[in-house]
Amino acid sequence: VTPHATGPSVFLAARKRAAGSSFFLAHDLDEYERLVGLSDSDLAQALGCSLDVLDLLGLCRTPSRDARFRADLEAIGTRFQIDAVRLAVLLRVLDALRAFEPLAQADGWLAAARDREDGLDDQR
Amino acid sequence: LLTDANAKGVNPVTLLDQAQYDRRRRRTLARISQRPGVVSEEAKTARSIDPREAELVARLRARDVTAPSALAETYLPEVARRLAREFPTTDEHLATTAAIDAILNVAERPDQVDLSKGTLRTYLVMAARGDLRNVLATATRRRGRESSLEAVEVLALERKIHRDDPNADPTAEAAIQSADRPDLQANVRRVTKHPTDAAVLKAMLEGERRTAAYAEILGISGLDEATQRAEVKKVKDRLKLRLRRTRAPES
After folding, report:
1. DSSP for residue B62
2. Is a pLDDT exceeding 70 seen at residue B183?
3. A43 Cβ partners below 8 Å, 6+ apart?
């Protein structure tokens, strides 16, 4: 990755901005960080790249979740010299977490309802 | 001759029919294009498109996953720097955000770029500049609204006065309702030029009815009650009258 005169901050700002659109990989990375509770440094370490590379990585289009998935990951891996398998695992885990998130929320509501009922029972 | 030419479907100047004319034109243009130093229109267009830009746009259109990142890496610092130079007094963060938005927008929608009309670099700079100008215009309007808060308060008072006045002109009321009208706001500002007047108007707007409160604003608390009442009424009437007089003409 070529260093720029304006410094890396412009790419960090771009990655954060891109996280708002599901078109970009930044959206996935940001959500993964949030769901798993990682910092940027943790994520960079997990992917085996620097923070500067993480910024540019986030500006990639997110890999298609179809037949192109593997080719897309390999293209990203080759471009940024990162392990495509690690990124693949991250994205698959993220997709699974997304699938379970509504259930987790529902479970949270049930738990809250149970707590309330318990409280009422205690009062009785 | 013209009638005859039209009837036969031939050009009255060249006396050739359309097919003959087209054939001759093509031959002539081909001859001219072979002369040294002459560049065909196709060649001109092809030469003006930067092959690297064309390749990048093609990659974006082909959904190459790394193309958006390459676009940002190549152009973002330059576009951000250029905007910062063009808008030196503007918050750098705003300029950077405009540059970022232009890049992300093209990454998501590359079809909007037409390289035959201009370079990708120019397109990005123009898009970012347009965004930034819009943001600045919005911020200026917001600041204007905030700074004229007092004027708007007075406008509200003026509306109240007219509502209470059975002879109020309904069309004038409509004009007052448009608080965004700068001419109207300017008139109201003239009324509240003096700080004491502004304070009295504010108290009126807040529905203050006690003479003592107005006497305090006017600095006449030491006078007897009857004089205070008379003085307060005089000031309030004067302000109401001035508001009516300074009301902007109907547009």
Report:
1. T
2. no
3. A29, A32, A33, A54
- A65 Cβ neighbours under 8 A, 6+ residues apart: A91, A95
Residue carrying the six token digits 């994520």: A43
**Is A11 close to B66, i.e. CB distance below 8 A?**
no
Distance, in Å, from the CA atom of B242 to the CA atom of B240, rounded to the nearest integer, reads: 5
H or E segment at B80?
helix B67-86
Residues in chain B: 251
> How close B54 gets to chain A, by Cα (Å)?
19
End-to-end CA, chain B:
62
How remote is the C-alpha of A4 from its chain's centroid? 26
> CA torsion A54→A56→A59→A65, rounded to 10°?
-60
> Which of B3-7, B26-30, B182-186 has the highest average model confidence (pLDDT)?
B26-30
Closest-CA residue of B relative to A5 is: B77
Residue A111 contacts by C-beta under 8 Å, 6 or more apart in sequence? none
Strand partners for A61: A24
